[in-house]
Specification:
binds coenzyme A, three-stranded antiparallel beta sheet, Citrate Synthase, domain 1, globular
């Protein structure tokens, strides 16, 4: 006799699914160290080539020079050819809601991209890969378009070059230095993928129902927006700006503990002994701002880190240095989480393709905690 397909009713559950293995993936492992498709994060991050990593996540292997050039060309072409139905709708939204979060614009934008493409059912693996490549180019272009439109400008042209270079140029309004493109590329690589985090799991859940890639990505953007997930990088800068200087760090940190508030940019569901990505980028950030006014923020950040470690044994996560890097690059705070979206598009689409390739509906059980069984009373008999 075969085993039942569902377990017996559970008497216990894991809050927030902590510690639960909810599926299998060949894309990323966090066991011991962070690896994308078997490659350690460090050399990938130091190379800082986001397109190379996106190709690796999607296709499973590092590209040859020719494969990378063709892939980058297709992504860049997608960034240059946003459907006017989408940009016209964004223009209308920018007039009526210019202060809307760019995260909302991205969520709406991806939903519209799916609608104009007629994306309704998952296609073949080749069709899904083509959709993923297109989204990799379209999403940063939608972000840049929204930033123009919400500031009352016409949409500027999408520049030549890598996503890191083109997006940085579009968001800051000037051609970035090689050093700035390099560290920005590193942040995209570090944000690209992270196994079964909340937004990726959301995307996989959506497509496990047989729904389409754009629906999965739209839902994932909604999940990433929250401050306990992607939204943390914007909150980090607000915190650092609010504290102001290193000498004010100690009373501020104690105030947070007394009020039982979480400190943004610290702690992690999986890494309990520090986030390797934060260590790597933290070092690079300090190096980048050496000898500039940015050193004051690094001193403050270091002070907060020491206090968090000694008081609560909590270490920074990636959002802690990423916020400082983006600030030092001259980026406005409201694009920090949208940049995370641009990067994570690679991981999300890879997971969606993996889920569709070996699908079973994701549908867990719950432990009922409501009223005992009771009888229905018709409306007329209720007081
Ligand atoms: C990421 C996060 C949601 C993980 O949550 P989690 O796995 O449920 O947290 P844990 O179970 O490890 O928390 C253990 C304890 O540390 C505390 N803690 C965790 N992160 C904390 C933080 N950033 N600041 C203060 N206290 C924190 C918890 O409140 C909990 O305290 P308690 O035992 O008194 O209730 C949480 O660390 C957090 O909210 N961090 C700030 C937001 C952030 O930076 N998010 C980006 C994540 S990459």
């Amino acid at each position: 006799m075969s085993a039942p397909s569902t377990p017996n009713a559970a008497s216990e559950f894991a809050r927030g699914l902590a510690g639960i293995v909810a599926g299998r993936t060949a894309i990323c492992s966090l066991d011991g160290d962070l690896r994308y498709r078997g490659y350690s994060i460090e050399p990938l991050a130091l190379a800082g080539n986001f397109e190379e990593v996106a190709y690796l996540l999607l296709y499973g292997e590092l590209p040859t020079a020719a494969e990378l050039a063709a892939f980058s060309g297709r992504v860049n072409a997608a960034a240059r050819s946003l459907d006017p139905a989408v940009t016209d709708a964004l223009e209308r939204l920018a007039v009526s809601a210019p202060h809307a979060s760019p995260m909302d614009a991205l969520r709406t934008g991806v939903s519209m991209l799916g609608q104009v493409e007629g994306d309704n059912l998952p296609g073949s693996r080749e069709q899904l890969l083509a959709q993923a490549e297109k989204l990799l180019g379209q999403v940063p272009a939608v972000l840049a378009a929204w930033m123009d439109l919400s500031a009352g400008r016409r949409i500027g042209p999408w520049p030549e070059g890598s996503i890191a270079k083109a997006l940085l140029e579009r968001l800051t309004g000037h051609v970035p230095s090689k050093e700035h493109v390099a560290i920005f590329g590193t942040t995209l690589v570090l944000y690209a993928e992270h196994e079964f985090n909340a937004s990726t799991f959301t995307a996989r859940t959506v497509v496990s129902t047989g729904s389409d890639m754009h629906s999965g990505i739209t839902a994932a953007i909604g999940a990433l927006k929250g401050p306990l997930h992607g939204g943390a990088n914007e909150k980090v800068l607000e915190v650092l700006t609010h504290i102001g200087s290193a000498d004010r760090a100690e009373p501020w940190v104690h105030e947070q503990f007394a009020a039982k508030r979480v400190v943004m940019g610290f702690g992690h569901r999986v890494y309990k002994d520090g986030d390797v990505r934060a260590k790597l980028l933290g070092r690079m950030c300090r190096e980048m701002v050496r000898g500039t006014a940015g050193e004051a923020i690094e001193d403050l950040a270091e002070r907060v880190e020491r206090l968090m470690l000694s008081a609560k044994s909590l270490k920074p996560n990636l959002d802690w240095p990423a916020a400082r890097v983006y600030h030092a690059l001259g980026l406005p705070v409201q694009v920090f989480t949208p940049i995370f979206v641009v990067a994570r598009m690679s991981g999300w689409t890879a997971h969606i393709i993996e889920q569709i390739g070996d699908n079973r509906l994701i549908r867990p059980l719950s432990l009922y905690s409501g009223p005992q069984p009771r009888d229905y009373r018709p409306l007329a008999t209720r007081g």
